[in-house]
Amino acid sequence: MKLKPTIQALGLALASIGAVHAQISDNVVKIGVLTDLSGLYSDVAGKGTIIATEMAIEDFVAKEKPGFKIEVVSADHQNKGDIAANKAREWFERDKVDVASELVTTSVALAVMKIAKEKNRITLISGAASTLVTNKDCNDVTVHWTYDTYAVANGTAKAVVKQGGKKWFFLTADYAFGHSLEKDAGDVVKANGGEIVGAVRHPFPGSDFSSFLLKAQASGAQIIGLANAGGDTINSIKQAAEFGITQKQSLAGLLMFITDVHSLGLKATQNMYLTEGFYWDLNEETRAWSKRFFDKTKRMPTMIQAGQYSSVMHYLKAVKAINTDDTAKVMTQMKKTPINDFFAKNGTIRADGRMVHDMYLLQVKKPTESKTPWDYYHVRATIPAAEAFQPLSASTCPLVKK
Questions:
Q1: I need a surface site. Which of 3, 105, 167, 178 has the fewest CB within 10 A?
Q2: At what angle do helices 176-191 and 149-162 cross, to 10 degrees?
Q3: What is the dihedral of CA 144, 150, 153, 159, to 10 degrees?
Q4: Tens digit of pLDDT for each residue in 2-60?
Q5: Which residue stretches of the chain have pLDDT < 70?
């Protein structure tokens, strides 16, 4: 008489285990890293973001011991929206990828966001910058993690104007990211008493900036705002120095990364202001994680690479917490759970998909001030999360209730 209930209980237990496993599709969580592996953003994102993703998975498995498998796929989007969209569609439809991540280059991010929404998959954006992601193009399956054009412009442009750089001319990458960065920085300049005396837009990606720089030189502006990034920024700074422009005018790198400073050297970049969401030498936690990253890559991480780790870890924790990879349920869990790691303290994901966290106003050290390799920045200010990013009251995202 006792055997039958025991068998029934065992059957119920096995059924329960099967139901639990069934909530993770194929018992596999698959993460896609879609990045620039060969172009002008390969240093700031690229292979380093794949390594950061692998680090997140290794750490998650070691600590959380999940009952599901985790796999990574990666691809080079070549900074082209159509290539990115086709790869994302292939991943979602054929390869059962649950989340597309990183997505450096705004045109890429916007294209993949649309496919992800259509296929009900998640996008975690660490690399792209435009505030379009959380404004008119926002959707409920996307999180914009690391930074955006509003945040970097808000920090750098405000600091430069306060230092006396009132008259600005913009050298802008001619696509959505550059346009967004120019607008956001221009708004900050004017709000703080400065003026915009002109702008010129260069092809993306660019190589010869001579004609554009000569226009900036002729403008009489005190500040040439570089509304570009990666290789475009590096080449702009190099060529400006070659033409002697920096002897009379100052450059403001509106989106610069530690790898840019490393490539150019402290002599060429000393005293420049920039705004980042992460610096390896902020505290013991950032130093510990960055050393592990350095051991694998022989380079200190950019904020994109650090943000990639943070976003993937937060996603995996959400999946485990609710035991499902269902898109809507995971997004709900991610949004209600604060982010507390080496990248962000008390970070939160808003209704528009913006992950808000502190940003940092940095100034590049003089060569004589740098004591060790990659010791490149003075931290001039911490910009609180509430001030760093565009307020929800100004959002044009349809998910935001006014």
A1: 3
A2: 40
A3: -110
A4: 334 333 433 333 333 334 444 898 899 999 999 999 998 999 999 999 999 999 999 99
A5: 1-22, 402
